[in-house]
Task: structure prediction
Amino acid sequence: MARVVQRRGSPPYLLILFVVLFLIATGLAVLFYVHDSDKAKLLVDKDKKVAKVQKERDGAAKDVRDLTFKITGRIASGPAGIQEADETLKAEHASEFANQGLTAAIRGMNGKIQRRDTEIGKLQKKTEEVANLKADGARQVQAVRKELADAKGRFSRDLAAKDQQLARATKEKDAIVAQQEQRITVLSQQKEDQRTSIQKLNARIAKLLGIIADMRGGVRAGELMVRQPDGEIIKTLLDENYVFINMGRKEGIKPGLSFAVYSRGTRIPKDGKGKAKIEVVNVGETTSDCRVVESARDDPIVEGDLIANVVFDTGRTHSFVLEGDFDLYGTGRPDPLGMGRIRMLIEEFGGKVVDNVSVSTDFVVLGQEPVRPPKPPDDAAPVEFRIYTEKLKKYQRYKQIEATARELQISILYTSRFLALSGYVPKKRLSD
Result:
């Protein structure tokens, strides 16, 4: 009991401690209550926010689905839909708008579509124009084809008519040809008869010419032509080596024509050699200027001297036959081009060269007589016989032409006489 009393008499530490602990517990309880109340309130607020966010997320997901549908054309949600929409914007036709947003992409694509529509419209318009042009072309082609068909028809009809005309003309031509052939046969016979008559007449003419020559003291008809002058000198300028003759264009004078000059009051000598030789330079209407090519110092040209060229004739064209080897330069050696030069000279002076002698031949110009070749031995080579035959033919032709000319009383002019009577002076060769 002494202990209890002792305890009761001790200070109330426990009570105070209990009260303090109670107060602390109460305070903590209130504090925890208040804290839990705040947490509960915060939790409610968070739940509201979560619900709001969830609602917004659901709305966003719906918007995403709607946008994805509008972009891709089908319903898709979540990252897969966004990914698909993003890939759609990254396609080749929309790649330029991929980083500009959907609105800009739609506007840009709409702009491109409008531009493409405009281009398509232009192309369609051009296509219509091309179609119209094609249609017009087709109509024109059809019209041309129709015209061509009509032309072909007309051509065929005309061709048939021409064929008929040609057939008639061919028939008429055949008839005419037959008549002409019959006429040619008759004329050929008449020609043969006339040729025989001409031969007889030629023989008679030759005989008569011989008689006439005897009556004229041996001067033949051909010699009479040789001895006739063509004109005369009307003026001289010997200091300038020029003379003038009384013939011009009216008489057929041409530049390059040469004449032999003979003294007035005399006849042309038999050998044909004159006092000078002149060549026409300028031709007037009735007179011509001539250059003196050769002249004798002791017998100068004077007014009234006669001029002559055996080839030239104002009234007719003389015919010549050429044969032999011609020595134009008096060297004793024939000129390989001699016959060609003589032929050219005669044609330039107004004459003509024929192949064979006939009664119509005016002159025969003969060069040197070919040597009669000796006949080679029988065992000679073929080439020797060929050369012999050619030389023999040349020799025989020369002799035959000479004999025929004498028989027909045709004047024979040898090289020197022909050059003298023509007044021609051969130009020097380069080899000389």
Remarks:
- The longest helix spans residues 102-215.
- The CA atoms of residues 167 and 312 lie 53 Å apart.
- Residues 1-6, 215-219 have pLDDT under 50 and may be disordered.
- Strands lie at 231-237, 242-245, 258-262, 276-283, 288-295, 306-308, 319-323, 352-354, 363-366, 411-414.
